[in-house]
Amino acid sequence: MKNLFIEYPKCSTCKNAKKWLIENNIDFEDRNITENVPTIEELKKWIKLSKKDIKKWFNTSGLKYKALNLKEKLPLMSEEEKINLLSSDGMLIKRPILVTEKSVILGFKLEEYKEILK
User: What angle, 0 to 180 degrees and rounded to 10, lies between the N-to-C axes of helices 12-23 and 110-117?
Assistant: First the structure.
């Protein structure tokens, strides 16, 4: 399986992660999170693989997150409702996302990338 790199092209963190992948000759398939939003099925699988709580999957600094007042609403929502919400709009999802055969990395932490991709 080829690594899957999910990004928002205007995001500086995504640009830095993508640049690192290219410079280190890491093979990956590129996917724009706004044009091809992760499906409910993908999210369920990836959240489990990431070993992170679903709330970590939300882009808490995003305008959409703030406009929807999700800081107040998320604690009252079921996991299914949260996944449905994430799959409805790529801008709600923390990015970049790197999906490998064995793991899923949210955001760009160089040490994590190095460890997973060595």
Answer: 40
Share in percent of the chain as helix, strand, coil (round to 5): 50, 15, 35
Residue 40 belongs to a domain with what CATH number? 3.40.30.10
Residue (of 24, 34, 21) closest to 99 by Cα position: 21
pTM: 0.94
Q: Report the domain count for the chain.
A: 1
Predicted confidence pLDDT, tens digits, the chain (118 residues) = 799 999 999 999 999 999 999 999 999 999 999 999 999 999 999 999 999 999 999 999 999 999 999 999 999 999 999 999 999 999 999 999 999 998 999 999 999 999 999 8
Neighbours of 71 (CB within 10 A): 11
At 75 the three-state DSSP class reads helix
- Structural domain boundaries enclosing 19: 3-117
Using CA atoms, how far apart are residues 8 and 34, in angstroms rounded to an integer?
7
